[in-house]
Sequence to fold (212 residues):
Amino acid sequence: MKTPTVPTPEVIIDGRPILKSLRVNHLLMAHVFVSVFILMMGCEPEIEPIRQFITYKGDHYSWPRVSETLQSKTMAFEARFNETAKYDFKDLSIQSDKNKLMGFCDSNSLPHDNSARFAWQWFNDRLEIYAYCYANGVRLEQFVGVVELNEYNHYEIEMADGQYIFRLNNLPAVTVKRGNASGMGAYYKLWPYFGGHIAAPHDVIIDIKSIY
Fold:
């Protein structure tokens, strides 16, 4: 026996069926919501977080502590120093110690085995930037350029066959030997570190904006 269809009751106000109108409106709203959601998923902007790292007086490591891995063959970021980058140890051998800015460990290696980083020092009243690497346990340093305080500068480290390629703004690229890393595994990012042997003489602040 066929069950009879029971018509949906309607409320008539000013000659219009309100219940049917509500059903139509709900369907339209649902359609619009789904369309907007799909559009947003397809056009979601890339996030470029700016983190402020502070190495407190008497310490080497910066805060906050961050654990991330590199997701491509190139690391790119922008960094800004301020007046806290200035210091004077009254000893050139200590003044020339390299402080670490940012980089990565190469394919599951430890920092002092195989790694590539930008480093910096306040020397001759200017902020000098260096390529700072370990290749099979051997430390390699090479001058890259000079940057100004209180402005962002662009940094890149590219992994290539047998070498790292360092780029700072529009300056000529610098290449440094790469160790015999396996090429497999995680590439853990390395964040600001003061020293060298001497801890930060005062709070040192660096703003970093990761690109990729």
Observations:
- The chain has a mean pLDDT of 84.
